[in-house]
Write a structure and sequence with these properties.
The structure is a single chain. The chain is an alpha/beta fold and 387 residues long. It contains 12 helices and 14 strands. The strands form 4 sheets. A 6-stranded parallel beta sheet has the order 5-6-7-8-9-10, with helices on one face. Strand 8, helix 9 and strand 9 form a beta-alpha-beta unit. The relative contact order is 0.17.
Amino acid sequence: MRITGITTHVVGTPWRNLTYVQVHTDDGITGVGETRMLGRTDALIGYFREAEAGHIVGSDPFATEDLVRRMKYGDYGRAGEIVMSAIACVEMACWDIKGKALGVPVWQLLGGRVTDRVKAYANGWYTVERTPEAFHEAARKVTARGYRALKLDPFGTGHFELDHAETLHSLSLVEAVRDAIGPDTELLVEMHGRFSPATAVRLAKELERFQPSWLEEPVPPENLKALAKVAAKTSLPIATGERIHDRIEFRELFESQAADIIQPDIGHIGGIAEARKLAATAETHYVMIAPHNVGGSVLTAASLQLAGCTPNFKILEHFNDFADAEIKKVVKGAPEVVDGYFQLPDAPGLGVELDTDAAAEFPQQAARFDLWAEGWEKRDTNGGSGQ
């Protein structure tokens, strides 16, 4: 079996463009992959045009290790976010092809299942006015849908510091959410790399009474010593890693012991096998994995394949019941959350199919993402964009 070509489809909303890649073979089997690029979708499509001729066409879709190696190193440039995201799309599509050809789900090819279901946490649900009352009601609706975990960034446009008044307001939002969901639902707090270590430590102390399951990206991701400083001064678990695009770059993070949960994005880190290798390394450091998943249903399906065979898998993010829920129709067999969990899929490959006609109903947009713009959490063109 050989790859004969690829086709790309961009599904657009005001706050995110999702790129789907179909990989076609001479056996008539087509696989699909997905990533969400932030402000670089056109660059990604441009790279695909070059990579299709240079690396992809003629390749054996079963030889994913060789294909990933050639795409990553064959152009003698350091692979960054664009290249690693392109690799991810093609790699997960090849796993889809392999599973379909063999009649088994991808998790079966990666070691077999270790769980039947995967806990989900909701994101993108707080597209409301930034008041305790609005956040309380929105959180209550999340749990009414059966979710047993949810995440929020309550900190407005905070950057490095957060003044006293804004601190009190942000904490009031967290308090309202905890009151709405009760003590048994997991609460995850996102900081989006906003703060200095001193501010992050101060806020972490204030947040401890709400018992969040983790504190995510408390400081910008480039400085691991700053992250370690925060980790050393809080009892809250630290989660990070969505903006690391090569598993080799996690080595220093593991050595620092500054993170309790890593959050690679399968759509940015080179695909399913790369994420599985990273998860195995994390396991040797007693670190859990909870992938960043801001994409659509193909990326969610790929993340579930990883979850199914990974002993240290914690929980999976899910936007698509809340933000742009209508885009689920572009994928046949889209994974659904029932009573707070995804069931592990049993269908061959990734277990989903791209509906290209439905995808065409959502043309690419000038999606924006500015965490320091007022109203970013509403995820629309009027108030900024968010993730």
